[in-house]
Amino acid sequence: MTSPAAELTDLLGRVALRDRAAFGDLYRLAAPKLFAICLRILKDKQEAEDALQEVFVRIWHNADRYFPDVASPQAWMNTVARNHAIDILRKRKPGGGDLDAAERLASDDPTPEQNAELRSEGRRIDNCMKELAPDRAEAVHRAYVEGDSYLELAERFSVPLNTMRSWLRRSLIQLRECLAR
What we know:
Layout: H1 4-16, H2 20-42, H3 45-62, H4 73-91, H5 99-104, H6 112-131, H7 134-144, H8 150-157, H9 161-180
């Protein structure tokens, strides 16, 4: 039995070659998590569904740009989804979605094995986040989980925009080093 990461890497490679069957399998495996990312950021079910479709169009067109040596396949797809959802937020008028809609959604709960893997990875990330300075950790969380822009973060922490970019870049390097240990 292959690992989920190996299976996703294989599917992305086949999608890069325009294999429609592989694309269907990739959608079946990755859509629930990518939808959750879009929904968490956009806070609107319909908008998240539309965003998910666009995310998969981007994956179809850019699968050849995925390099297994740089990131895991799930991390790469998560980044595509997160960046697209943030782009939608930036285009959106001020306001927000209905959080109650998120609670009414049917859940595609992960399997017990996936839960164990997620908890383990989550603990590793939490432990590495604790190694960051508290303001850096909060900035990373707000940027990459909540979708705050660099400008919003710079204003929130009362630092110049380029300083915020440096904070985030250095923090991500520190997190990558920690997770590699």
